[in-house]
Amino acid sequence: MFKNKNENVIKEFVIENKEHLYRFAYSYVKNSEDALDIVQDSIHKALKKQDSLHDPKTVKSWVYRIVVNTALDFLRTRKKVQLSDNETLEFLIPGKPDVYSNLDLKKALTELSAEDQTLITLRFFEDLKITEIAEILDMNVNTTKTRLYKILDILKKKLADSTGGM
């Protein structure tokens, strides 16, 4: 099997610019090990997706875009995993079991239709974007937004009624 002509272009660019790519990744993460991981992942992605490089003359911007996206993905995942401060940890450590005498929100959610519960769950409990929800539910994005805001308004009114006003 023959090698894609882009493979050599990408390899040459990476070899000639490895220090630049490293410094660029480091500018995002401020950590040498993470920057090396990002560069390595970026090179792997570039070689894997070499067919999407349509013009070998644009290899520089193409590889840098991959590094940017890889670094941003890394930062997003790291943001989700960051450790909390001691006060937050103490708050989260289970002590006494939580006892709620007022479960109005839970009750209001159970009174929604299954479709409406799904929308709320995907948006607020699974933290999905509206476009992702629309794709999952095979709905138009605007329809998804409208339904979500309508459901939130219904919940707000139910909670206001049950607490005597908000």
Characterise this structure:
The protein is mainly alpha-helical and 166 residues long. It has two domains: 5-81, Orthogonal Bundle (Rna Polymerase Sigma Factor, Chain: A); 104-163, Winged helix-like DNA-binding domain superfamily/Winged helix DNA-binding domain (Arc Repressor Mutant, subunit A, Orthogonal Bundle), CATH 1.10.10.10. 73% of the residues lie in helices and 0% in strands. The chain contains eight helices and no strands. It has helices spanning 5-29, 32-48, 59-81, 86-92, 104-110, 114-125, 130-137, 141-163. The longest helix has 25 residues, at 5-29. It is elongated. The relative contact order is 0.08.
Name the shape in a single word.
elongated
Number of helical stretches of at least 4 residues: 8
Oligomer: single chain
Query: From the alpha-carbon coordinates, what is the Rg to the nearest angstrom?
Result: 24 Å
Query: What CATH first level of the largest domain would be assigned?
Result: Mainly Alpha
Q: How are helices and strands ordered from N to C?
A: HHHHHHHH
How many domain modules? Answer: 2
Would you report the number of β strands?
0
Low-confidence blocks of residues: none
Strand content: under 5%
What is the average per-residue confidence, as pLDDT, rounded to a whole number?
79
CATH H-level superfamily title of the largest domain: RNA polymerase sigma factor, region 2, helix turn helix motif
CATH topology title of the largest domain: Rna Polymerase Sigma Factor, Chain: A
**Estimated structural class:** mainly alpha
